[in-house]
């Protein structure tokens, strides 16, 4: 079934010293997320490199409570890794535009809650990169330096195994066992990863694994 796809941030237009882009590589209650530099220019861009090539089904973005971009454009990059590329050249890769999301100015919550966006990705070719382009911030009295921030990003999809080149020169991959189209685990939801205590989360994941194993054992048992 689709699962969480790990990644690393390889490029950001800028960052606040205490809120570096590498914060997005991890999830958990103590994670502070990425913030753009103070009084930065717009748009800001963040590029993710997936640990393995994947077909994405969903992108989740957890916004900051008051350092909020008005709009975020989403792109997927090429399938092949550019191993000899400098990180600062990551934005020059041939990205394909997915679409955009808009974020609430959050005045209705008095800037106390964070907006979680879950974006269903239309069918696309396998990708090894994702790019986010963030536009001007919503103005509010708490955002003194006109910054934008992302607290966390989650990618859900089908991880692809190593492929072989076909007669047309294209790489063909096999899906890692799990099956396309199945629902991902609730434990992979970004809200779960960000707000559930790690020890509790580990126990829940263990119970879920045992449940899936029990179902498989029953399904494979002779009648």
Report on this model:
With 223 residues, the protein is an alpha+beta fold. The protein is built from two helices and eleven strands; from the N terminus they run E-E-E-E-E-E-E-E-E-E-E-H-H. It has helices at 190-195, 198-220; strands at residues 3-4, 7-12, 34-35, 44-63, 71-76, 96-102, 116-120, 127-134, 149-159, 164-165, 171-172. Strands 1, 2, 3, 4, 5, 6, 7, 8 and 9 form a nine-stranded antiparallel sheet that branches. Strands 10-11 form a two-stranded antiparallel sheet. The radius of gyration is 19 Å and the shape is globular. InterPro entries: CEP104-like, CEP104_N, Galactose-bd-like_sf. Residues 33-157 form the Centrosomal protein CEP104 N-terminal domain. It comes from Graphocephala atropunctata.
Give the topology, please:
Elements (H helix, E strand, L loop, with lengths): L2 E2 L2 E6 L21 E2 L8 E20 L7 E6 L19 E7 L13 E5 L6 E8 L14 E11 L4 E2 L5 E2 L17 H6 L2 H23 L3
Antiparallel strand pairs: 1-9, 2-4, 3-9, 4-7, 4-8, 4-9, 5-6, 5-8, 10-11
Protein name: Centrosomal protein CEP104 N-terminal domain-containing protein
GO cellular component, one term: cilium
Pfam family, one: CEP104_N
